[in-house]
Amino acid sequence: MNEGGAIRRVTGWALRRPRLTLAVWLLVTVALAVNGTRLEGHIAPTSIEVPGTASQRAQDLADREIGSRGQAPILLQGPQGAVEAQARGLAAALRGDRRNTVLTSLDPGAPPQLRPAGGGAVLLVERPTDESFGPEVGDAVRRVVRAEVHPPVRASVSGFSVIGGAISERSVSDAHSAEIIAVPILLVVLLLVFRSPLAAGIPALLGGATVASALGVADIVAQLRDVTDVATPLASMMGLALGVDYSLLMVSRFREARRRGRDVDAAAALAARTSGRTVVIAGATILATMAVAVVLAPGTFLQSAAIGAAAAALVAMAAALTAVPATLVLIGRHLDRWRIGPAARSDEAGWGRLAGLVLRRPALAALPAIAVLGALAVPGVGLDVGPPDVRVLPAGAPARTATERVVRALGQGWTAPLQAYAVDRSGRLRTPAGQTALSRLRAALIADRDAALVLGPRIVRRTAVLTVVPRSGPNDPATARLYDRTRARMRTFAAATGSRTAVGGVAAQLTDYRRAFQARLPVLVLALSAVALIALVLVLRALLLPLIAVLLNAAVVAASFGVLALLSTGKSPLLGGAGFADALSLLALVALVFGLSLDYQVFILTRLREGWDSSGRVDVAVRSAIVRTGPVVMGAAAIMSGVFLAFMTAPLQTIRQTGTGLVATVLLAASAVCLLAIPAALRIAGPAAFWLPDWLDRILPRIDLEGDQDDAAGAPAARPAHPSATPGRPPVMTSPPELALGLHLDGQVLRGALTIEGPLVGDGGVARTAVLACATDELIGAFAALPGTRAFTRTVITHHTAPARAERTLQLAAWCESDDGVRLSVRATVHDGALPVAETHATLFRVAVPASRIGAAG
């Protein structure tokens, strides 16, 4: 699979037609941004329903038989005479809508548990709804309350419809507020990195455009399926971070190439080819992990989070491959105008010292990183997790204040009761025996020590409905036990009466969501790890190194959970909130942590692979990766951390905890994992880290990751070929040097060294390109002469990519790309150190003659 060729075609079009590319990109961005303004209107209510659970089966049963209904308790407080008068008027107004069922504490025969402590009146309203966590019921009830209740009476409307609507509304508003904070942070960090407004402006502009476009993409998806409010903050967070991050890679590579003497067009092309591959692979890992999250997500919340993150990654990749190269071509020569302060110095010596430490003492270098990850993971083991309740809202939020008043007056269970359903399929419930069975069921439910009140049974068509109000809150273990006992009693009732029973309601849904989270979290982690391992094996063509990376990825997840436990849980958490980790944000965080951690690891792992391919030496690969990739990784980490820190200021706990976990992930993945643990592990493992079984090497598609590495290696810019080299014809060479070839087979890759005795430099200091033809011709010949092969004819075309330096030993590598039984496609590369000097694609045709040896294989 020539992934590099596809990237070259995309970026090549942008480089050749920069103005047209930017015009098209601008039109698409504006169209998506306009579409994104409608996302809020297409957002589905936050859902805690989990397909396949008992509460979801109850919801489905209620939908079929009587329609789903949501509850909203209303507490009226004030002078008792005014309260009673306005309560009767409010009840009459609510009953004027035939969809409502209203029970009040003033009704004759009302249960005493309905009377609030401290005086006042209570109205319990039920009305049809599609989503128990959606705002529809709460909004409808509050409209009537505002029209009917006046001072000195105060009304408090509660229920999970009100809470869910408030969470959804705060998610959108808090995301916009965090964006406003994140933008100046981004600009400051970018100016510190680039010291130039133009250079900093490109990533900043692309980050903002990515957010707007990602919201537009999310809106397109929202019109096809349910997308909840979490997609907005996730698209904003990831859009800003990835849009800036990926364009930062491109701009940094461009500036480096310019410093080494390339002209604007050549530097832009180099940045597009090299950083473009990294961007695509990094973005693809995020898309793959988000796809797994969508498949395994318990409910629409994690699916919506994954959609928001995937939209951001997709848009960021597209912009980095098109708009950034086109912009660099147009304004690249002015990129460092209006410099702010002195130019930022390249601390290659400092990164070199770090690389030296890793190479000399790999275990000592990795120990602090592993120790930090392990220490942070410990508190994450006992992380207190629960589904959202009213405490995720900030303390002064109206919905939280109203709910707290209701809880003080009536008890905790009123905000999330259980609903028990019995469908009379045989007509027995209307008989005296059936009525007796219903009475016994109600008595058993009332006698439960964790039940505060049982309302009903209410017969609707052929369905009996009982409302069970717990004594405890929706996230309390006692409520979960009441839910389980109620289900057991309903199963006994079903066996005695032949009816079909189920237990649902908000308390049941919250309990099932928490249990689904606990059951699916290990599965999600294993699935994400498997996807990550497959992706890295495919990209790196190795087994041990990807396995190490995936294990470290799991350690980053555990450490991020530990940071969340330290900052967000307990009686008085440092970040405030409910004192437990929100299960909704935590599941989203798992997927995002894997995607982001892999995003950074791709940067370092691909450079390690390139260094190994070019030199065949682990020490060269480690040093090149740390020195060349370290500054980019840490710069990108600073940018992402700034974005996520802005979201940590959000009042809504769900967003704040997600931002906290992502900050921890970015810092740990960039520093402890990418710059210490992975290079140290490679140094310890040695060449075995790049081992791949022959059978697996044959079946895996090849992804071209090499590209031009001359700038990365610190080599001089390429010069024109010698005049004797005519396009389309073999180069003319006089007195070719002698070639001494030594080869060995490394798995499925033929490696070797080619010592060239004789002058390599011709007129004007330009390398004689015939040396490249000789080198690759010898290499292909040696490949064909391996023991056990048959005779071949061959056609070799050498593409000169850079001059070879004089009096050096060239490093060779060749491998089979495809073999259909007749044609054997072989690829060969020649490197002078880390500098690529030639690349050859050869087609070797099998000839039906006895096996023979062609060339001289050392």
Automatic annotation (TrEMBL):
PANTHER family: MEMBRANE PROTEIN MJ1562-RELATED, MEMBRANE PROTEIN YDFJ. The lineage of its organism: Bacteria, Bacillati, Actinomycetota, Thermoleophilia, Solirubrobacterales. Residues 710-737 are annotated as: Disordered. Pfam families: MMPL. Its main location: membrane. It comes from Paraconexibacter antarcticus. Residues 712-727 have a biased composition (Low complexity). This is MMPL family transporter. It is a multi-pass membrane protein. It is found in: Cell membrane.
